[in-house]
Amino acid sequence: MKSSSIERHIAHLSQCLRETITTQMAKQHISLSFFQGLILLHIGEFERCTAHDLVVQTKKDKAQITRLVNELIELKMVVREKSQQDKRQSLLSLTDEGIVLFAQIKQLRAEIKQQMTQGLSDGQQQQLQQWLGVMERNLSH
């Protein structure tokens, strides 16, 4: 297999996944962009986090994260409050409405993962995760 074909498959899979998630969110009347949903998901998984945590987790630049967080605050999905331990830090958490959407998005993504990995055994899925992890680490250096 040509190496460019691996790159092409990964790029195509990434785009298909993004489109599928966006389409399913729209079908469920979740009026967030793909990246707003991604940030909401990360904040929900952390429960409380900083914008820097989101930069590290998503590998997006700080300006993008700031813009997305501000949009979610404006939509009343996220709140920002000063850390009690370190007043220089702001902690992000979900509002009640954000928690409801977090649960919907988490469920939607679980269903899409199930659809995407249909026909792959648990062992094959674990192996695929290992390979993707190796490729990600190779590009991170």
TrEMBL record:
Q: Which Gene3D superfamilies match?
A: Winged helix-like DNA-binding domain superfamily/Winged helix DNA-binding domain
Under the heading InterPro entries, the entry gives: HTH_MarR-typ, WH-like_DNA-bd_sf, WH_DNA-bd_sf
Quote the PANTHER family the UniProt record gives.
Answer: TRANSCRIPTIONAL REGULATOR, MARR, TRANSCRIPTIONAL REPRESSOR OF EMRAB OPERON
Question: Could you tell me the keywords of this UniProt record?
Answer: DNA-binding, Transcription, Transcription regulation
Report which superkingdom the organism of origin falls in.
Answer: Bacteria
Protein name from the UniProt record: DNA-binding transcriptional regulator, MarR family
Record-linked PROSITE patterns: HTH_MARR_2
Q: Which residues form the HTH marR-type domain?
A: 3-137
Give a yes or no for keyword Acetylation in this entry.
no
Looking up Pfam families in the UniProt record yields: MarR_2
Statement: the UniProt record of this protein carries the keyword Secreted: no
Q: Which GO terms describe its molecular function?
A: DNA binding; DNA-binding transcription factor activity
